[in-house]
Write a structure and sequence with these properties.
With 280 residues, the chain is α/β, with parallel strands linked by helices. Helix content is 42%, strand content 27%. The chain folds into 2 domains: 114 residues, Rossmann fold, CATH 3.40.50.10170; 125 residues, Hypothetical Protein Tm841, Chain: A,domain 3 (2-Layer Sandwich). The chain is globular and about 55 Å long. InterPro entries: DegV, DegV_C, DegV_domain_contain.
Length: 280
């Protein structure tokens, strides 16, 4: 039984990691005016953060066209018996629904579509685990069951450093952004019922990062094998330093560093930081 693993670009898995695990990726789009770019293909995270500094308006974003899904699924069907397609939360994007619609159009392979109810490399953890199982010859039903089980321990918390993107994107009023900036408020966000919602409001970046690490410690101190990722908005050196510090403190945790790419970075902005984890 050969099972192909697909995810979308908002998993922000580096190309070498996708190639190592044989994970196929379908990109979402970020749109500056009349120009549309496929993230992770035509525009990198670094290029994106440079671009938004020179633009008065935030870009818009869009999900992959259903035809792109159909094209990918039909291509994979030539070599695989089944396809597991893993996507960002259906509560913040129509990508999952697009994959479901495309799956119904493909007769040459059985396509299973999974809603991670989350995004970024925490979503990528589902794809990595699925790919590891596929490599072992596990079937799509077993993979889907494991992915569903992973939700029990999957956690992620994000800190927004600059409120201006939330304000420019219409998710925060100008007055709220102004007052929040004056008070140095750093909102902590997480996913609940497939949507991004506030968890806590914390004064100063340092305290916000400490709060995220305390939440992580609640699970990590139990000593069970875990995977975790530090996710950054164009703050790679800070993320790498944090990874080194945490790796020394928690030797039983397998740490990664990833990033908020163009689609998610449009809303969270530069300087955002997050940590996600689950029990292996």
């Amino acid at each position: 039984m050969k099972t192909a693993i697909v995810t979308d670009s908002t998993a922000y898995l580096p190309k070498e990691l996708r190639e190592q695990h044989n994970i196929h990726m379908i990109p979402l789009n970020v749109i500056f005016g009349e120009e549309s770019y496929q993230e992770e293909v035509e525009i990198t995270a670094g290029q994106f953060y440079e671009e938004i500094k020179n633009r008065p308006d935030l870009p818009s974003t869009s999900q992959p066209a259903i035809g792109k899904f159909v094209e990918l699924f039909e291509s994979l069907a030539k070599d695989y018996d089944a396809i597991v397609s893993i996507h960002l939360s259906s509560g913040i994007s129509g990508t999952y629904q697009g994959a479901v619609a495309a799956a119904d159009m493909v007769d040459s392979a059985v396509v299973h579509v999974f809603d991670t109810e989350i995004s970024c490399m925490v979503q990528g953890f589902y794809a990595i685990e699925a790919a590891e199982m596929a490599k072992e010859g596990k079937g799509a039903d077993a993979i889907m069951a494991r992915l569903q089980d992973m939700k029990r321990t999957m956690r992620a918390y994000f800190m927004v450093d600059d409120l201006s993107n939330l304000q420019r994107g219409g998710r925060l009023s100008s007055a709220q952004a102004f007052v929040g900036s004056l008070l140095q408020v750093k909102p902590l966000l997480h996913f609940v019922d497939k949507k991004i919602v506030p968890f806590e409001k914390i004064r100063t970046r340092k305290k916000a990062v400490k709060r995220i690490l305390d939440l992580f410690d609640d699970d990590a101190k139990l000593g069970a094998p875990m995977r975790a990722v530090i996710i950054h908005g164009n703050q790679e050196s800070e993320a790498e330093e944090l990874k080194a510090e945490l790796s020394e403190k928690y030797p039983h945790v397998e740490f990664y560093v990833s990033y908020f790419g163009p689609v998610i970075g449009t809303h969270l902005g530069e300087g955002a930081l997050g940590v996600g984890w689950y029990l292996k």
